[in-house]
Amino acid sequence: MGKQRTAIVTGGASGIGRAVAEALALYGYAVVVADVDADQGQGVANAIGGQFVCADLSNRQQCRQVVDSTLAQFGSVDVLVNNAGFQHISPIESFPEEIWERMLSVMLTAPFLLIRYVWPYLKTQGWGRIINVSSIHGQVASPFKAGYISAKHGLIGLTRAAALEGGPYGITVNAICPAYVRTPLVENQIHAQAEARGISPEAVVEDVMLEPAAIKRLIEPQEIGSLVVYLCSDAAASITGAALNLDLGWTAR
Ligand SMILES: NC(=O)c1ccc[n+]([C@@H]2O[C@H](COP(=O)([O-])OP(=O)(O)OC[C@H]3O[C@@H](n4cnc5c(N)ncnc54)[C@H](O)[C@@H]3O)[C@@H](O)[C@H]2O)c1
User: Fold this and answer.
1) Domains of the chain, residue spans
2) For ligand 1, what atom is nearest to the CA of residue 181?
3) Residue 135 in contact with ligand 1 by CB distance below 6 A
4) Quick one: which of 16, 35, 198, 210 could link to 41 by a disulfide (CB 3.0–4.6 Å)?
5) Measured in angstroms, how far is the CA atom of residue 10 from the centroid of ligand 1?
6) 6-178+226-245, which class in CATH?
C-alpha cells in the first residue's frame, strides 16, 4: 500500500466492529471508529491508534458528521464498513413501532446515507471499498425478528444497487452475512429468545442458534475482521455485489 488509506467502521466500539477496526489498523489503515458508545468507542480508537467520532447513526446530521470529521482529520476516505446495529426480539403483533423505525434507520438508512456521503470521494479517486455487515438473517428469516430481518434483507439490496453503480469507478460494494458471532449482541439475545420461546438459555444456543449449522460453534469476531481485510485487498478486486455467507453451513441444505 502506498499512501495510508482511511477506513470508517461504524459500530466499532464493540463485537464485530471492534474486530474489524483492529484488523484494518493492523493492516495499516487509519481507522475512524464511529459509534454512539463514547467510552468504549474512544477506548478502541486509542488502542488501535485511530480516531473516534461519537455519532448516533439514526440521525442524518450525525451520519454526515462522521464523514466530515474523517475528511477533516485525514483528507480522504477509502473504505466504509457499515456495521452498527442492534437486535430486538418480539412477535410481530407486539413489535414496538418505534423500535421497527429505529432498526431501519440505523441498519438500512444510515448505510445508505454514509455511502451517499463518501461516494463522491471514492468516485474521484477511482478506488473504494464498501462493506455492509448484513447477516444470515439478510438471506433467510427466523421468527420474532421482523425489524432486524427486514433491515438486513434491505441492506443486501442496497449492496447490489451500489455495486452496479460503483463498477465503472473502481468502487466495490459487498455484504457479509454471518450466522451467530460471539459478541455482546448475541449474549444479550440468548435470554430474550429464551423468554420469547419459553425455553432455557442453553436450549436457545443448542436447539435454536446452532440447530441449522453444519459446524456447531459460534463464529469469532476476528473471522469477520479477516474477511473485511481480504475484501479491501487487491486480490478481491473482482468481488462486487456479493453477499458472502459465513454461516457455518446454515444455508447449505
Ligand atoms: N453477533 C452476531 O451474531 C451477528 C450476526 C450477523 C450479523 N451481525 C451484525 O453485525 C453488526 C455488529 O454486531 P455485534 O454483534 O458486533 O453487536 P455489538 O452489540 O457488540 O456491537 C454493535 C455496535 O453498534 C453500535 N450501535 C448501535 N446502535 C448505534 C447507533 N444508533 N449509532 C451508532 N452506533 C450504534 C453499538 O454501540 C455497538 O458498539 C450488527 O449490524 C449486527 O446486526 C451480528
Assistant:
1) 6-178+226-245, 180-218
2) 3
3) yes
4) 35
5) 9
6) alpha beta
